[in-house]
């Protein structure tokens, strides 16, 4: 009976993945559109270079701050409340950017959009993973990466036309994000609270000492068994994101100033690589829930490193830039953000899941922003030297991830409902009690009944 009720109440996991995964679209679209639209505003309403720098830096910083606080709030107060508020915040921030001309109001819009976007990311990813099963969790999370790629493609494609429309062109670039945010907010109204979070919250409130109810403090991230995956993912994503962010923010700068090729040609190379990135993203979705994910990670890691080594060894020109894009499109699909998201969802129990994801995202954004301040100066010294350094940094991040996950790790979705062994140690007289029947009927069968721990991430060691 419980299974029937749960099945009737639960929305289609793929629908949840699309609606919540649009957070990744909005994240990418906001960053890219801001970079383009502010330049248009500079030419039309008099935004100064200093103001552009302040707003660009504020956006990155606010996304990081939002990720930390949004992740924690999502674990404490529920996924649904947070992802509704954050999407409303994005819509309000975008409205400031569309209709304002004064710098203080534009800056307010950037801050609100950044905070909303950053806070939405970890909560939305947790919602997706908790709506899924072990058979499709990786694929559903992988869909967010494809939506992220589309979030880059849309403003770039729009700018081809809107770039010549004056201030209206900048407004169009921002407005499309606002329209998407409002549509996503309306769709999210029909998505219920995560049954995993509801179960964990009720158990914690009623003193049922399960793993998911007990492990809820930020300090638990630095204790066994969560410290190793948490620190490994922190290092892995921060270091690999440094390379990706450098290419994203300064790819055109390097093409024009180092390779001496036109902006249009570099943009064309980038646009042609997007279909490949989406194709590889679909491929990732097909293999990530199987036992070969680590094999693909190793192959992807090699390709990713070749993406940095190629221009470092042979200089920046049309051929090396094309090869770099190809290597990074493949390597990024299997050994970068997608697998980080999957590992993060699997490595932590419900009331730590969003907190861990938000912290990992925030640290990576801050590290990338710090490097961005000095990147032009490093390019002036030696662009090839910079990319050799990036290759080393990215290699360290990839090795850390490989050592942490090469033999697979326990999937928390399989045993977080078990009684907390630490609780039994702390209280020798503790008597195990089952969850109340009223709680069990609210969650899917996979949540309501304990399952033996098993390792779904195990793969042949490459």
Describe this structure in words.
The longest helix is centred in the C-terminal third of the chain and has 56 residues. This protein has two domains: 193 residues, MFS general substrate transporter like domains (Growth Hormone, Chain: A), CATH 1.20.1250.20; 256 residues, Up-down Bundle (Growth Hormone, Chain: A), CATH 1.20.1250.20. It contains 19 helices and no strands. With 462 residues, it is mainly alpha-helical. The chain is globular. Helix 2 runs antiparallel to helix 5.
Give a brief outline of the structure.
The chain is mainly alpha-helical.
Largest sheet: none
Uncertain segments: 1-7, 427-462
CATH topology tier name of the largest domain: Growth Hormone, Chain: A
What is the overall shape? globular
User: Strand pairing plus helix content: what structural class?
Assistant: mainly alpha
Number of helices: 19
The CATH class designation of the largest domain is Mainly Alpha
Total number of distinct structural domains: 2
Tag the structure with descriptive keywords.
about 450 residues, mainly alpha, Growth Hormone, Chain: A
List the helices and strands and how they pair.
Blueprint: H1 2-9, H2 13-44, H3 49-77, H4 79-99, H5 103-131, H6 137-162, H7 167-188, H8 195-205, H9 211-214, H10 227-257, H11 263-287, H12 293-314, H13 318-335, H14 337-347, H15 350-405, H16 412-415, H17 421-426, H18 437-440, H19 445-448
Helix pairs in contact: 2-3, 2-5, 2-6, 2-7, 3-4, 3-5, 3-15, 4-5, 4-7, 5-6, 5-15, 6-7, 6-11, 6-14, 10-14, 10-15, 11-13, 12-13, 12-15, 13-14, 14-15
């Amino acid at each position: 009976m419980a299974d029937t009720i749960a099945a009737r109440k639960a929305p289609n996991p793929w629908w949840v993945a699309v609606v919540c995964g649009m957070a990744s679209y909005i994240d990418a679209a906001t960053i890219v559109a801001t970079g383009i639209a502010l330049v248009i505003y500079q030419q039309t309403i008099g935004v100064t270079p200093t103001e552009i720098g302040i707003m660009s830096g504020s956006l990155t910083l606010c996304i990081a701050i939002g990720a930390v606080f949004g992740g924690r709030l999502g674990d404490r107060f529920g996924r649904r409340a947070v992802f509704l508020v954050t999407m409303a915040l994005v819509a309000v921030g975008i409205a400031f950017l569309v209709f304002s001309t004064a710098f203080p109001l534009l800056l307010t819009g950037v801050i609100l959009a950044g905070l909303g976007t950053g806070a939405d990311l970890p909560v939305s990813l947790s919602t997706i993973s908790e709506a899924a099963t072990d058979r499709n969790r990786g694929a559903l999370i992988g869909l967010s990466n494809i939506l992220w790629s589309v979030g880059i493609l849309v403003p770039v494609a729009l700018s081809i036309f809107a770039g010549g429309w004056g201030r209206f062109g900048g407004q169009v670039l921002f407005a499309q994000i606002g329209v998407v945010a409002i549509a996503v907010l309306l769709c999210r109204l029909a998505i219920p609270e995560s049954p995993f979070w509801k179960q964990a919250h009720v158990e914690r409130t009623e003193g049922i000492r399960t793993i998911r109810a007990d492990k809820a403090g930020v300090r638990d991230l630095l204790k066994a068994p969560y410290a190793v995956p948490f620190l490994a993912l922190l290092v892995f994503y921060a270091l690999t994101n440094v390379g990706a962010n450098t290419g994203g923010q300064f790819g055109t700068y390097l093409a024009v100033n180092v390779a001496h090729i036109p902006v249009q040609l570099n943009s064309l190379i980038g646009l042609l690589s997007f279909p490949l990135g989406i194709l590889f993203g679909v491929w990732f979705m097909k293999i990530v829930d199987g036992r070969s994910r680590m094999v693909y990670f190793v192959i992807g890691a090699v390709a990713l490193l070749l993406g940095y080594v190629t221009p470092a060894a042979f200089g920046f020109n049309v051929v090396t830039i094309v090869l770099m894009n190809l290597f990074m499109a493949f390597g990024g699909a299997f050994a970068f953000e997608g697998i980080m998201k999957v590992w993060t969802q699997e490595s932590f129990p419900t009331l730590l899941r969003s907190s861990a994801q938000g912290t990992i995202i925030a640290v990576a954004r801050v590290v990338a922003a710090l490097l961005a301040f000095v990147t032009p100066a490093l390019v002036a010294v030696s662009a090839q030297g910079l990319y050799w350094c990036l290759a080393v940094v990215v290699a360290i991040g990839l090795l850390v991830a490989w050592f942490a996950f090469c033999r697979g790790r326990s999937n928390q979705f399989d045993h977080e409902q078990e009684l907390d062994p630490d609780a039994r140690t702390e209280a020798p007289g503790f008597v195990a009690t089952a969850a109340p029947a009223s709680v069990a009927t609210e969650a899917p069968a996979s949540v309501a009944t304990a399952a033996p721990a098993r390792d779904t991430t195990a793969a042949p060691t490459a």
